[in-house]
Structure formats: structure tokens, C-alpha cells
Amino acid sequence: MSAVAPEANGFTVEIRDARGWSVAIVDPEGRDASVRACRDEAEARTFASTVRQHIGWLSEARFREIYRLGA
After folding, report:
1. pTM
2. What three-state secondary structure class fits 45?
3. Is residue 40 situated within a structural domain?
4. Residue 46 belongs to a domain
5. What is the DSSP pairing of strand 22-26 with strand 32-37?
6. Could you list the residue range(s) of the whole structural domain that residue 39 is in?
7. Quick one: which H or E segment has residue 47?
8. Is 71 part of a structural domain of the chain?
9. What are 30-69's pLDDT values in tens digits?
10. Contact 32/51 with Cβ under 8 angstroms?
């Protein structure tokens, strides 16, 4: 039995520290789909790492569903 990779997921994630730490989930069109404030760099890096893993593992449709991003 072989594993089937999910369809390409066009989302990306960015760590930002301009006005306090935050993590942005950026949609395939380059717009912020979600921004989460974080208390420090460690929290931002941990959350961003989790989101990156989900981007790699999940189809775009399932990713939108889990992160409640809409269509």
C-alpha cells in the first residue's frame, strides 16, 4: 500500500514582530487569511511550525476547514 500525498496546498505562514509577535497564515493569493497574536518569539515559532506541518500534510480544503478560513 502506498501513501497518497494531499493536493498542493498554496498557504504559507509568516512570523512577524513589527508591533509585537504574531503569526500570519497567508492564502494562495497573498492575503492574510488569519493573524494570531503571540506573547513572545518562542510561542510564535512554535505555532508557525505547527501551521507549516499542517500545510504540508493537509489538502487546501481540509486546511481551510481546520483553521476556519472559509472558501
Report:
1. 0.84
2. helix
3. yes
4. yes
5. antiparallel
6. 12-66
7. helix 41-57
8. no
9. 999 999 999 999 999 999 999 999 999 999 999 999 999 9
10. no
What are the CB-based long-range contacts (under 8 Å, 24+) for 50-55?
Answer: 51/13, 51/23, 51/25, 52/13, 55/9, 55/11, 55/12, 55/13
Cβ–Cβ < 8 Å for 2, 44: no
Task: Fill in the DSSP letter of residue 18.
Answer: B
Domain count, the chain: 1
Q: How open is the CA angle 17-8-21, to the nearest 5 degrees?
A: 10
Q: State the Cα–Cα distance between residues 31 and 27, nearest whole angstrom.
A: 5
The three cell numbers locating residue 8: 498542493
Q: Establish if 20 belongs to a structural domain.
A: yes
